[in-house]
Amino acid sequence: MNPSLSIALVASFIAVSCALLGAFLVLRKMTMVGDAISHAVLPGIAIAYWLSQSRASLGMFLGAAIVGVGATIIIELLRKKLRVQSDASIGMTFTTLFALGVVLITFWSDSVDLDQECVLYGEIAFVPFNLWIINGSSYGPIALWSSGILFLVVLAYIIIGYKGLKMTSFNEDYAMVLGISAGLWNLSLMSMVSLATVVSFESVGAILVVALLVAPAASAYLLVRKLKPLLILSAVFGLLGAFGGYGLSRLLQTSIAGSITTVLGILFLFSLAIQTITNKKSVHALEI
Known about the structure:
Blueprint: H1 3-27, H2 31-40, H3 42-52, H4 57-81, H5 86-107, H6 116-120, E1 131-134, E2 137-141, H7 142-160, H8 162-170, H9 172-177, H10 182-221, H11 227-252, H12 256-278
Antiparallel strand pairs: 1-2
Helix pairs in contact: 1-7, 1-10, 1-11, 2-4, 2-5, 2-10, 3-4, 3-5, 4-5, 4-10, 7-10, 10-11, 10-12, 11-12
């Protein structure tokens, strides 16, 4: 497969997956939770890697998912039980777990081939060189398979859980009256964010994952009023950011991740300008 095509496809799969999940984070006013989880999974990744001495995705995912869900539970306990302000609970949880992960990686740096920059920045340009080889036959880049599977899993999750996610995102109390567990859907969403983070971190890094979780959905939120158009437009903005950013990086010979984030920022400013000119209101009601 052409290296440029594989890089573009990996970026697109990850961008759309994160954008779809990010739409629900934006609706729940939990974008900083996505930021916290994408960084808080670092100690889970470090511990899983140290125990297995392998970059196998399953071990990485389990470690990241456990810590990601744990971070969500800690934030909720601090906010609801101990009445710590929401932003303070997110900030303390995020910084503490992230710092712990950095300490663990530094402490184990002699025995574990993993470092903070690998997790934070990634390097999507190396995707074509890490191939899935079985019995001497190459089946393409590993990241292409993992990001493609991630996209299918996220898509299936949203289709199957659309009603629960919709109701709990707009009105948790009403959802509970209907017998929908807000806590369960919240944990499932955070688990999916953890999955997206750990699948994506080696290719694009945690920092770009944060941008992809927030920027496409935030841009779409300014322009549409219903949930389904919000999801579709978020995915479109994610694709535009991925392809546009990759094209910009080729043109300027600069960082792919930085170029994608720059294009996403431009798209947000463009959406903000349209919203200001048309005085269009953001999403405000359930789509019945």
